[in-house]
Design brief:
Blueprint: H1 23-33, H2 36-46, E1 61-62, E2 69-73, H3 87-97, H4 119-127, H5 129-135, E3 142-145, H6 164-176, E4 180-183, H7 187-193, E5 203-206, E6 219-222, E7 228-230, H8 233-239
Helix pairs in contact: 1-2
Length: 240
């Protein structure tokens, strides 16, 4: 990234296997709830089926930040247990946390001991199938999660988690560079969190967010006159 040195320190750059939480976030949870276990209990009491876990490496973002498209998502879902001890996957995840991945498809060629692909890759391939058909290749996208830690189901995420500062700065820089930004999920949370995002002229979102499909008839923005605008195939080729 051309302006990487202007960003705040990356809180994820020193994450290693077995230390699955950014230090600034750990300090936050301990300060506010007494311990990480107490925070997990708090979430469970509020949403019994959220199944929040800090036993896996976090995924605050995925891909190459030099991409012209930033997709803002909710949080990494239920982890794939078949990859818990796969060193190739763990090492690739750590490189991604260090912003050293060349593509959001960084895990595509990594198989588990049973020869199967990671569930997250399957999810991504399905959601970008139409883009690949248009482009004749994988699209180039940088994904950012609202909340960086794994859970089976979304819940009421903290609004002031310290590690957000780095993700926010990445998005603000993308806005300065006039990149295409697509809110996939957690729209209200993102608009509340990022100042000026709601007025950003190159902001789109998903018409049907639940499925998360990046298709021509699902990526939309509505102007101040209430007119819907969809990306054309030429715009897809320009950005992706």
């Amino acid at each position: 990234m051309s302006q990487i040195n202007l960003l705040p320190a990356n809180p994820w750059k020193d994450i290693v296997k077995g230390e699955n939480i950014a230090k600034c976030d750990l300090d936050y949870f301990v300060s506010k709830y007494g311990s990480l276990n107490e925070y997990e209990s708090h979430v469970k009491n509020k949403c019994s089926d959220a199944e929040l876990t800090f036993e896996w490496l976090p995924e605050p973002f995925s891909g190459n930040p030099d991409s012209k498209v930033y997709c803002l998502n909710k949080n990494p879902g239920k982890p794939d247990p078949c990859f818990n001890e796969e060193e190739a996957f763990i090492n690739a995840t750590i490189l991604n946390l260090q912003l050293k991945s060349n593509s959001c498809f960084w895990a595509e060629n990594i198989k588990n001991r049973c020869g199967k692909q990671h569930g997250g890759v399957d999810w991504l391939l399905r959601r970008t199938k139409e883009l690949k058909t248009i482009l004749g290749r994988h699209p180039e996208i940088f994904f950012i999660e609202y909340f960086p830690y794994h859970s089976t189901k979304g819940f009421t995420f903290p609004k002031d988690l310290p590690s957000y500062d780095f993700s926010n700065a990445l998005i603000e820089q993308a806005m300065e560079e006039e990149k295409l930004i697509i809110i996939m999920r957690e729209k209200k949370g993102w608009l509340d969190r990022i100042e000026d995002l709601k007025d950003y002229p190159n902001l789109y979102w998903l018409r049907y967010a639940q499925g998360g499909y990046l298709t021509l008839n699902n990526i939309v923005r509505i102007d101040k006159n209430g007119v819907e605008h969809y990306l054309s195939e030429n715009e897809i080729r320009k950005y992706f």
